[in-house]
Fold this sequence. Notes:
By secondary structure, this protein is of the alpha+beta class. Helices cover 55% and strands 11% of the residues. It contains 25 helices and 17 strands. 33% of the residues are buried.
Amino acid sequence: MTDVVQQxxxxxxxxxxxxxxxxxQKAGKQFKCKCPFxxxxxxxxxxxxERGMYHCYGCGVGGDIFTFIxxxxxxxxxxxxxxxxxxxxxxxxxxxPEKQSERDRLYATLEATTKFYVEELKKNPEALAYLxxxxxTDQTVASWRIGFAPGPPxxxxxxxxxxxxxxxFSLKELMGAGIIKGADQxxxxxxxxxxxxxxxxxxxxGRVVAFSGRTLExxxxxxxxxNSPETELFKKSEILYGYDRAKHGIRHLDFSxxxxxxxxxxxxHQAGYNNTVAVSGTALTASHVQLLxxxxxxxxxxxDADKAGISAAKRSADIMLRRGLDVKVAMMPFxxxxxxxxxxxxxxxxxxxxxxxxxxxxxxxxxxxxxxxxRTFKLRAREEVIPYVPLLPNKIDQDHFEAIIAESLKTTKxxxxxxxxxxxxILEQETKSASxxxxxxxxxxxxxxxxxxxxxxxxxxxxxxxxxxxxxGTQSKLKKEISHIIKVPVAELDTLVPVEKRAEVMFxxxxxxxxxxxxxxxxxxxxxxxxxxxxxIKQELNSTRSLLDEAEQSGDxxxxxxxxxxxxxLQRALQDSPYTVEDIIFT
Length: 587
């Protein structure tokens, strides 16, 4: 993996990676731009092509090409690796030509199917009229590649299958892509989607991986929506409809807008809410939340106001609050979804989203609307609202909502606080029970690592962050000495300090070097190296003295002699001559 990362870094200039997202301007040896991660008027986002790093003095973000893609595209390291490997033309893993060909053929099958559905839509007046009736513009239809799957009574049950077979796609490929499904023995497979308006579902990179089809027929036995089955390319728990287009909108608006269906997503984007996503054929999962929280920790749920929508809001809120997100709910009129409201009055939709309330206030309002008698109202709130309070990320927030609940229930805040503590105990017990097995497994399989003191971490961060400003000879010598001091292989040094921190140190150190004599920077390097050495020796000396005391108390003379010798050795090491500029710095 290290070789692949280095290959990508060798082939890609950080300026080439960053500049497609922001307008950059040259500033001396570096480049500057307005930070893509927070709103600002004066550029404070610095890019160093020479060092391959960036740092924003406004919001503090920094790193290399991998951390930039992780943040800007809302992906994890694996996703960033894939994006950059594709851009650099680097093969990530040795995949057999056969396997690679199979996946490529699946993507090709889905792309060909999408094009077929797009062309079929143009031929179907009923489907076009329906889209127009729902308020979807021609531009939105084209942008989202909305199409139509032919089927009875106008076409056969196998119209898509026959078209794609004529283009050279095999039954195995059509089955693997979720386009067709098997029939009874002796009969040919038939199309999964028939006589439906088709919404392609895209992965994070914008490639079609599945479909969702909305029926044009009416009938109790006809499902309104049909989604692709799970395939090698499509995992429902990992795909959010619209996420590939919403990433930048979520970051810019600083919240995710979650709706229920495809029409809600495309109409919300059409109305200017380009931060809107929806799940596809499943409830919101932890994987979905992980995608969203990379971009913003704020979420607004705009789900239907019916019983199913309220239940979905509760489930979603539970998952998101546990991960520390700020969850609000838009108070939707009963019987209307976002697409309906936008069609009638886009301004009203903006008003509803703008007046969204915290999920706890939402749940209280739902109970209040049921006109329950006072005692039932309080008991229902105890079971349905109060359990969400311990999920809030801080005590100040919890205190705030305890007061709101008390006021709504017309009871004392002390009574509410008591119930919150009760709910907290239940939550802690559930969490403890669920995690016991995981913790036990981790203790058995993972080495317990000692957390280094903050001072040592700070010194190490400076040394590793400042390395790019040194000559190759100095870098080599420094790495060798640091490796020797902390007893970590040279190849693993970069893993000890996050790249964001190293980038911050590097930019600040470079500014210092540009303003002060170079000898002052060199002196600080040597001082820090000596400081690190001293801290490590003293740390081991303290732990060895503790072991010495234990050996003395236990009467273990052999262990006592061994630890005594080590204490003497470490004390002598503290008296050794310190590093000098002449020892380390190569000009």
